[in-house]
Amino acid sequence: MNNGWPEEYYAVIFTSQRTDAEMELYGLTSERMIELAQQQPGFLGLEAVREENGLGITVSYWRDRDAIAAWRDHAEHKVAQKIGRQEFYSWFQLRIAKVIDERSFGLEDL
Description:
- By secondary structure, the chain is an alpha+beta fold.
- Helix content is 35%, strand content 34%.
- The chain contains 3 helices and 4 strands.
- It has a 4-stranded antiparallel sheet.
- Strand 2 and strand 3 form a beta hairpin.
- The radius of gyration is 15 Å and the shape is globular.
């Protein structure tokens, strides 16, 4: 178990290619979505990286599929999804995976 997380949980893997449009608006929207996701029941954590060329991967962790569905359907998140399709991303791919095991190295020193 990790940080008191359930033994099994879900990962939502969002891989995307950013456009050059509205970098400031993208940053504000991204920050707001992270803040909002952290407030959702069933949210466990988030990891994100983005290369200089705009390719990025964000992995959010959730207790169960119901929590993921509630986040997907959240009104403010739906607005951000629409803007993302129209402005922020040239493409994206979303995957949902069930995490049944995990291992780590060196995290106890962080």
